[in-house]
């Protein structure tokens, strides 16, 4: 099943914000973790604007930084079976500029926010986010949209 291509419920389609440079839609690729990439960070390093990173169920203990990317990160199946956990008191996800759509995942970090947003746009759908100081920390004019999600500390 290709969950990244159609733009319907459960897809990684980026919508209006995901046009990339000049508004032209680039060919979207699906990068699968752990089937094709061993970690979320390695998939992020390989991705281009408008790509979709699909996470299989599991516990991903890593801290990932997304720099100026337009990307979707989506859990396959139920969010209860998928956890992204930050390491050593660092946020699980740090987003600097760009646009990220995060869906169907649980994100947590102890001792720091689970997600840190710096001048970026984040859309979180069907997510559970829990951090040590706060669930989500926003700085430098970031923009956040939550849909069917829970954020706590």
Q: How would you explain this protein's 3D organization?
A:
- This protein is mostly beta strands and 153 residues long.
- It is built from one helix and 13 strands.
- Strands 1, 2, 4, 6, 8, 9, 11 and 12 form an eight-stranded parallel β-sheet that branches. A five-stranded parallel β-sheet has the order 3-5-7-10-13, with no helix packed on it.
Explain briefly what this protein structure is.
The chain has one helix spanning 40-46, and strands at residues 30-33, 51-55, 58-61, 64-75, 82-85, 93-103, 106-109, 115-118, 121-125, 128-131, 136-139, 143-147, 150-152. The protein is mainly beta and 153 residues long.
Which descriptors apply to this entry?
single chain, 153 residues, mainly beta, eight-stranded parallel β-sheet, five-stranded parallel β-sheet, 13 strands, 45% strand
The biggest sheet, with number of strands, parallel, antiparallel or mixed sense and barrel status, is: 8 strands, parallel
Mean model confidence by pLDDT:
88
The number of helical segments is: 1
Based on helices, strands and strand pairing, what is the structural class?
A: mainly beta
**How far do the termini sit from each other?**
35 Å
Query: What's the gyration radius in Å?
Result: 14 Å
* SSE pattern: EHEEEEEEEEEEEE
Number of strands: 13
What assembly state would you assign to the polypeptide chains in this entry? single chain
Shape: globular
Q: What is the helix fraction of residues, given as a range?
A: under 10%
Low-pLDDT segments = 15-24
Portion in strands: over 45%
Secondary structure elements and pairings:
Elements: E1 30-33, H1 40-46, E2 51-55, E3 58-61, E4 64-75, E5 82-85, E6 93-103, E7 106-109, E8 115-118, E9 121-125, E10 128-131, E11 136-139, E12 143-147, E13 150-152
Parallel strand pairs: 1-2, 2-4, 3-5, 4-6, 5-7, 6-8, 6-9, 7-10, 8-11, 9-12, 10-13
């Amino acid at each position: 099943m290709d969950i990244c291509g159609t733009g319907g419920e459960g897809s990684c389609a980026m919508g209006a914000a995901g046009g990339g440079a000049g508004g032209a839609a680039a060919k979207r690729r699906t990068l699968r973790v752990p089937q094709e990439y061993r970690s979320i960070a390695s998939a992020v390093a390989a991705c281009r604007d408008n790509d979709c990173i699909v996470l299989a169920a599991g516990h991903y203990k890593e801290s990932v930084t997304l720099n100026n990317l337009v990307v979707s990160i989506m859990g396959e199946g139920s969010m209860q079976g998928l956890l992204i956990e930050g390491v050593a008191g660092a946020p699980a996800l740090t987003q600097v500029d760009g646009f990220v759509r995060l869906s169907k995942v649980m994100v947590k970090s102890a001792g720091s926010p689970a997600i840190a947003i710096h001048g970026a746009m984040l859309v979180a759908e069907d997510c559970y986010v829990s951090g040590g100081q706060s669930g989500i920390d926003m700085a430098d004019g970031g923009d956040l949209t939550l849909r069917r999600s829970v954020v706590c500390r």
